[in-house]
């Protein structure tokens, strides 16, 4: 009978969004969050480049803290400079986080984040988060490289830090990087980025998923899903900041350094480990946590906004597709036999 009809494979369900839609939902969520947090990303980048390979106390401090950095940038470069690199930053968020969150959702739908009792497994969550982050960061690495170089640029030598590439536009930046280093140059520093995002993603996604599920087990809290998202995102943001900041500093240094035209290698660092050793010798332990304040002020809201946008986008998408299928099946059950066959083939 028609009313006993089984759900066909073509009928979309929560676990069957497909990678493309998971990619789009994750990318839109992250890009939306990136729009609001990009000024703090600019500030973080400038602070991380301050005093590069110099001992503390031997260089002029242009940015004392996050608020002072915002003031200095607005004063010398203009208010719009706080949104520098917006284009590649949003595309990076869309591509990297779209791939990262989309891959994680697919792995989760296959049950790879749960144990044999179908309970969330924290170790498996960590591994899936790290794997998803590594893939996303590698694909988005050229965008992050250009974003970093543009964000570090200053119109005034009074507050300039790090190597100044003086890119005139995003397109010119990509062409310049390609001319100097070829295709390899576009992915220079990608290994550091993979470590950076793998560490952050492992902590963020595993912590967020575990805490949110624990909170939702409470009948009272289950009535307020956005509250659980907010709490889980806040905690995940703290872990994300602590785990990712050292690798974030390394990435910023590797991405922003100039290139020797003869060797096509970086003028400061030959690679990830060389950068780590040189920083440890000259800047010490706290050098790896430069800009941690700006980093958390960015990562905290960014994590909250991304997770809230992501969760709500998935719920709205599922509701829309389920409403469509419900309407189609209702029409099918009320139709004549010939019409049923026609509608059945269209679902």
Structure write-up:
By secondary structure, this protein is mostly helical. The chain has one domain (16-305): Mitochondrial carrier fold. It is built from 10 helices and no strands.
The largest sheet, given as strand count, sense and whether it forms a barrel, is:
none
Number of domains: 1
Shape: globular
Question: How far apart lie the N and C ends?
Answer: 17 Å
How much of the residues is beta strand, in percent? Answer: under 5%
CATH top-level class:
Mainly Alpha
Second rung of CATH, namely the architecture: Alpha/alpha barrel
User: How many individual β-strands?
Assistant: 0
> Roughly how many Å is the radius of gyration?
23 Å
Count, helices? 10
Question: Kindly state the mean pLDDT as a whole number?
Answer: 86
CATH superfamily: Mitochondrial carrier domain
Helix content: 55-70%
Pfam families: Mito_carr
Family: Belongs to the mitochondrial carrier (TC 2.A.29) family.
Membrane topology: Multi-pass membrane protein
GO cellular component, one term: mitochondrial inner membrane
């Amino acid at each position: 009978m028609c009313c006993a009809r089984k759900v066909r494979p073509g009928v979309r369900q929560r676990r069957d969004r497909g990678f493309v839609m998971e990619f789009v939902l994750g990318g839109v969520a992250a890009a939306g969050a990136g729009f609001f947090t990009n000024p703090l990303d600019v500030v973080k980048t400038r602070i991380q480049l301050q005093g590069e390979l110099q001992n503390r106390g031997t260089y002029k401090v242009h940015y004392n803290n996050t608020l002072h950095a915002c003031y200095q940038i607005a004063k010398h470069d203009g208010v719009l400079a706080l949104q520098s690199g917006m284009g590649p930053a949003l595309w990076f968020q869309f591509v990297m986080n779209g791939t990262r969150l989309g891959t994680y959702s697919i792995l989760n739908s296959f049950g790879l984040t749960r144990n044999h009792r179908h309970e969330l497994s924290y170790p498996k969550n960590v591994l899936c988060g790290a794997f998803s982050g590594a893939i996303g960061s590698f694909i988005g690495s050229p965008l992050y490289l250009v974003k970093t170089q543009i964000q570090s640029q200053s119109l005034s030598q009074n507050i300039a830090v790090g190597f100044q590439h003086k890119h005139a536009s995003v397109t010119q930046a990509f062409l310049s990087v390609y001319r100097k280093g070829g295709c390899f140059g576009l992915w220079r520093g990608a290994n550091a980025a993979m470590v950076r995002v793998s560490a952050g993603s492992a902590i963020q996604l595993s912590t967020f998923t575990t805490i949110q599920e624990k909170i939702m087990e409470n009948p009272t809290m289950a009535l307020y899903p956005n509250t659980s998202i907010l709490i889980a995102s806040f905690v995940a943001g703290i872990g994300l900041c602590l785990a990712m900041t050292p690798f974030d500093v390394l990435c910023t240094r590797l991405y922003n350094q100039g290139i020797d035209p003869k060797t096509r290698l970086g003028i400061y660092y030959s690679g990830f480990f060389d950068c780590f050793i040189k920083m440890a010798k000259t800047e010490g332990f706290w050098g790896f946590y430069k800009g941690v304040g700006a980093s958390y002020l960015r990562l905290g809201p960014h994590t909250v906004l991304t997770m809230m946008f992501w969760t709500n986008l998935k719920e709205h998408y599922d509701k829309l597709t389920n409403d469509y299928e419900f309407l189609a099946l209702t029409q099918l059950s009320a139709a004549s036999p010939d019409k049923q066959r026609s509608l059945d083939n269209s679902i």
